[in-house]
Write a structure and sequence with these properties.
Blueprint (H helix, E strand, L loop, with lengths): L1 H14 L8 H7 L1 E5 L5 E6 L2 E3 L8 E6 L2 E5 L3 E9 L3 E5 L5 E6 L23 E9 L2 E21 L5 E17 L2 E8 L10 H6 L1 E11 L2 E9 L6 E8 L5 E5 L7
C-alpha cells in the first residue's frame, strides 16, 4: 500500500506543470516613460505593476513580463512578443505583427504628458436641464428633462497608435423625465441605459452611453421623445422613441429602421 500511495503521489506531482515565473529584472528595466522613436511622442509610462497611457480616456493596466513576452491585463490579457529590451530600448510586436520601436525618456518634463491620464466623463460631468411647454387641445403640458452624469463606467477596448490594446473609460448618464398638465404631475421616471435592453442588443448596450433624451413632438397620443444611446468615439448609435401618454403611460419603440447607425 505504501508503494502504491507513493506511486500515486509521484504521478500527481508530475502531472502539474510548473508555473512560469515573472522576469522581475525585465519589469524593473521597463520602469519609466517610453517614447515612440519615430514620432518622439509618449507611448506609455511603466510604474510598479501598472502601465499608464498619456490620453485622457485610457485607464491604467496591470502588466507583467514572462519569458520574452509582455502581458497586459485588461478585459482580457493581451500578449506582445518582445523583440529587444535594454536599459534605454524596448521593441515589441503588435498583435498585427508590426514592430514598435521605443526609447526611454530622459526628459523629466515628459511626466506632464500623464498629468491628465485619469478617465473623464463623456458628457463633461455637467447636469443638463431642459423645459418645454406645449398646448394640446387647449391643455397646457410642461415637460422637464434633466441629464445627470453618473459614476457608472462604460469600458471600450481599443488599439492605440502604438498597437497596444487599451481600455477607454467613459461615464454613463441617467435622465429624469417629468410631465405636468398644468400643476398636476402626470408622469415621472429616471431613465437608465438598462431600460432599453429589450430593444437594443446586449453587446451594443454594454459599450454605449445613454447620451440624451431629445423632444420630438406632441400629438393626440402623447409626448414623444428620442432617447439616444451611442458608443463613445464611434458613429454607431441607437435611437429609441419614448412615448408618454397624457394619462401617464409610457411606451418605447425603435426609431424607423431600428439598426445601429
Amino acid at each position: 500500500m505504501g508503494l502504491i500511495l507513493a506511486a500515486c503521489q509521484n504521478s500527481k506531482s508530475e502531472s502539474v506543470a510548473p508555473q512560469p515565473e515573472e522576469d522581475l529584472q525585465a519589469k524593473q528595466m521597463l520602469q519609466g516613460i517610453w517614447m515612440d522613436q519615430d514620432e518622439d511622442a509618449p507611448s506609455f509610462r511603466a510604474e510598479g505593476d501598472s502601465i499608464f497611457y498619456p490620453d485622457t480616456t485610457s485607464q491604467p493596466a496591470r502588466f507583467s513580463i514572462i519569458g520574452d513576452t509582455l502581458y497586459i491585463a485588461g478585459a482580457y490579457t493581451s500578449k506582445y512578443p518582445i523583440v529587444k529590451q535594454a536599459e534605454h530600448i524596448f521593441q515589441f510586436k503588435t498583435q498585427g505583427g508590426e514592430v514598435v520601436h521605443l526609447v526611454k525618456s530622459e526628459n523629466a518634463d515628459d511626466i506632464h504628458y500623464f498629468d491628465h491620464c485619469k478617465p473623464v466623463a463623456l458628457n463633461q460631468r455637467q447636469t443638463i436641464k431642459r423645459d418645454t411647454v406645449v398646448y394640446v387641445d387647449n391643455q397646457r403640458y410642461h415637460f422637464y428633462v434633466q441629464v445627470n452624469p453618473t459614476r457608472q463606467k462604460v469600458v471600450k477596448p481599443t488599439i492605440n497608435e502604438d498597437g497596444l490594446e487599451v481600455e477607454n473609460v467613459y461615464y454613463d448618464n441617467s435622465i429624469r423625465f417629468i410631465l405636468f398638465n398644468g400643476a398636476a404631475r402626470i408622469y415621472q421616471h429616471d431613465f437608465h441605459r438598462e431600460d432599453f435592453k429589450k430593444l437594443v442588443p446586449e453587446d451594443f448596450l454594454k459599450q454605449s452611453v445613454l447620451s440624451d433624451l431629445v423632444y420630438s413632438r406632441a400629438d393626440s397620443d402623447g409626448v414623444r421623445y428620442i432617447a439616444q444611446l451611442a458608443i463613445p468615439d464611434s458613429p454607431s448609435s441607437y435611437e429609441v422613441e419614448v412615448l408618454v401618454s397624457y394619462r401617464g403611460r409610457m411606451e418605447m419603440a425603435l426609431v424607423a429602421g431600428g439598426d445601429a447607425r
